[in-house]
Amino acid sequence: MRRRRTLWIVGAVVLLAVVIAGALLLQRHAAPEPVRLLPEADAYVYLNLSPLRTAGVIGNPLPTYEPDYESFVRETGFQFERDLDEAAVAVHAAPRLTDVEPGRPQLESFRRYSWVFRGRFDSQRADRYFRKLARSVESYREVTIYNISLEGRMVRVALLGVNLAAVSNTDGPQAIHFMVDRYKAVALPFGGPSVVREYYHHVPLASLVWAIARLNAGAGGRTPLTLPGGYDLFFPSNTVVVGSVRYLTEIQVTAQAFTAGTESAKQIVDEANAFLAIFHGLENTFSPSGADPDVKAFFRSLKVEQDKDRAVMTAAMSPAFLKKLFAEAPAQMTGSEPETKPRKPARRGKSKR
Q1: Where are the alpha helices (DSSP H) in 56-165?
Q2: CB 3.0 to 4.6 Å from 245: which of 79, 184, 209, 310, for a disulfide?
Q3: Same domain, yes or no, for 78 and 183?
Q4: Phi, psi of 279, deg, nearest 5
Q5: CA distance 100 to 91
Q6: Number of domains forming the structure of the chain
Q7: β-strand partners of 84
Q8: Ramachandran class of 327: left when φ > 0, alpha when ψ lies in -120 to 50, beta otherwise
């Protein structure tokens, strides 16, 4: 009897271990929850800020010169540099010009986006702020959706939970409703957008930033990607690009282009290496001796190689370079420059004689 009980205990422990191992295996091949909540789109980008904050790359609030953002921080108490942990964005296809109604603003032909943010925010303060901005408010499956008019289009915001928020600027409410539905269904580990489910296992472990994009064919059956300097790098039809950034002893940048065959991969590698040769030639000719060494080291580390039907680009970035990018981001995003006017000296009180 005692032996049978021991066998039952051992069997239960083994079964529990198998279940845990299976869950971990599923989790390894499953995208983070903010991505799994997103609707179908052409491309996806994910950002995990927590390790960067722990490493000291970000954390202290960065200066901003955008009044709208300052108002947002003041009224909600939420600062992206301090309170945002994860962000995921879906890039939707832009409407074709033939689909745009005559007389509608040109911005209607721009791409649309859906976002999911995970962070620490005060739900009550956020509710008051968004209600003040909203043109209208609706309730969908017991979730409040704020319809905010911004730059000629409707932006929909939904606070999904205590630490999750969804945003979309698509033409209709379908995208925001989809994200609410996914949240209510408790997104399963094997769920999420189709291209993410298919290619997420190619994202290296511990990647802080990654992107997966399916490049649809453009004119002539190829999709152009404009690189710095106006140089176009063309991708064959239906190429899928998986890019990632991970922070180990150094910051490793990788981009893999999955193509239909070796010839297509070779074409991408040849064009990319031709661009790098031109770029390095111009750098050697025009780059001043005082150029930032971190920037120069990054571009010199760029390599593009072929692996069967894949074109693989790798590069290394120093942590110092990453800190500079984050420090310069606010001014670049807002298009503003820091004030350079000298401050007036403070008035001193009259000295007592």
Answers
A1: 67-76, 80-83, 123-133
A2: 209
A3: yes
A4: -60, -45
A5: 19
A6: 2
A7: 119
A8: alpha
319: buried, middle or exposed (CB in 10 Å: 19+, 13-18, 0-12)? Answer: middle
Binned average pLDDT, 10 residues per bin, the chain of 353 residues: 59 51 50 95 94 72 72 90 93 66 50 94 95 96 95 92 94 95 76 93 93 76 62 82 88 93 93 84 61 77 93 87 61 40 45 44
Is 122 found in the same domain as 67?
yes
* pLDDT in the model for residue 4: 59
pLDDT for 313 equals: 94
**Biggest CA-to-CA distance, the chain:** 101
Same domain, 63 and 195: yes
Please state the pTM of the whole predicted model.
0.78
- Tokens describing residue 113: 């986006």
pLDDT for res 157: 98
In this structure, is residue 352 part of a structural domain?
Answer: no
Q: Is 240 helix (H, G, I), strand (E, B) or coil?
A: strand
Token pair for residue 63? 């200066």
Same domain, 119 and 213: no
Residues 185 and 318 in one domain: no
Classify 136 as helix, strand or coil.
strand
Q: Are residues 172 and 225 in the same domain?
A: no
For residue 148, the enclosing domain spans 32-201
The answer to the question of residue 43 being in a domain is: yes
Q: Which residues of 7-29 are buried (b: 16+ CB within 10 A; e: fewer)?
A: eeeeeeeeeeeeeeeeeeeeeee
Query: What's the CA gap between 23 and 169, in Å, rounded?
Result: 35
